[in-house]
Amino acid sequence: MLAWLRHSAAKGADVAGSLQGRVAFVTGAARGQGRAHAVRLAAEGADVIALDICAPVSDTLTYTPATPEDLSETVRLVEAQGRKVLAREADVRDDAAVRRLVADGVEQFGRLDVAVANAGVLGWGRVWELTDEQWDTVIGVNLTGTWRTLRASIPAMIDAGNGGSIVVVSSAAGVKATPGNGHYAASKYGLTALTNTLAIELGEYGIRVNSIHPYSVDTPMIEPEAMMEIFARHPAFVHSFPPMPLQPKAFMGADEVADVVAWLAGDGSGTLSGTQVNVDKGALKY
Ligand SMILES: NC(=O)c1ccc[n+]([C@@H]2O[C@H](COP(=O)([O-])OP(=O)(O)OC[C@H]3O[C@@H](n4cnc5c(N)ncnc54)[C@H](O)[C@@H]3O)[C@@H](O)[C@H]2O)c1
């Protein structure tokens, strides 16, 4: 009976904030989905290590880059949740910088439980028309940068000895064809492979690894005009970008994706590892 009561009390503490006492690392945290994840994880009780490049990534990208002010706003919002945050401008392609931030975060907060590998970039062009720079940028940030993020985070999670949860931000483009951005799809399919491999490799440490596959989220990365231009030139491509059954018009909000990330980060999703979670309001069933 006493044991049961103690168990219930522990569970009660979890319910008050499912990530109470834990530490989460979020990349691409200055704005968009990354900011939503950082703030939501803090609301659940986690201290946050936040990274973002806060600068243009490549001339081949046409949308507005994140700024240092964006990252400062994330810091303000995390602190408004009553949590601590260590935020730094760094490029996920810069191995030394990523490792340094993880080490500093672990030194400051004492452990690492959650990693959300979210930093990413999107470009457009048919596969055979892409330049080396377009290819290298998207593969370098989305695939290699995520691998570097995970390579820096995993030893700290293993050392902490508390198990943990890794959420890899792939895309609908990581489970289906998306004509007009084959390099992006290649990077996001690569993340699906990394996720599934790591789910097995990290099982013995109690670390779960799942990927999310968002579709049409309202962030600066999405440029409706660029997409319309591609569809005007290649009308057949439009079939690969179906409407969402639950929200046929417009995009979903970053907060809605953060709901899923917070659930995957916490113990409520404890049976899931190596799972591809579509965050698509049904679109991928077309
Ligand atoms: N918006 C969508 O519809 C959608 C759909 C599926 C998947 N995604 C993925 O979601 C993730 C978040 O994108 P978002 O929609 O919030 O777009 P976003 O452009 O608003 O956010 C991406 C963030 O990552 C940062 N970043 C980019 N390259 C970086 C680098 N080399 N190092 C460090 N930080 C870097 C950017 O500065 C930016 O703050 C990305 O991985 C993206 O591919 C987006």
From TrEMBL:
Key word Flavoprotein present: no
InterPro entries recorded: KR_dom (IPR057326), NAD(P)-bd_dom_sf (IPR036291), Sc_DH/Rdtase_CS (IPR020904), SDR_fam (IPR002347), SDR_subfam_1 (IPR023985)
One Pfam family hit: adh_short
Single GO molecular function: oxidoreductase activity
Highest taxon of source: Bacteria
Ketoreductase domain residues: 22-218
Keywords assigned: NAD, Oxidoreductase
Recorded family membership: Belongs to the short-chain dehydrogenases/reductases (SDR) family.
PANTHER family linked to this entry: DEHYDROGENASES, SHORT CHAIN, ESTRADIOL 17-BETA-DEHYDROGENASE 8-RELATED
Stated name of the protein: NAD(P)-dependent oxidoreductase
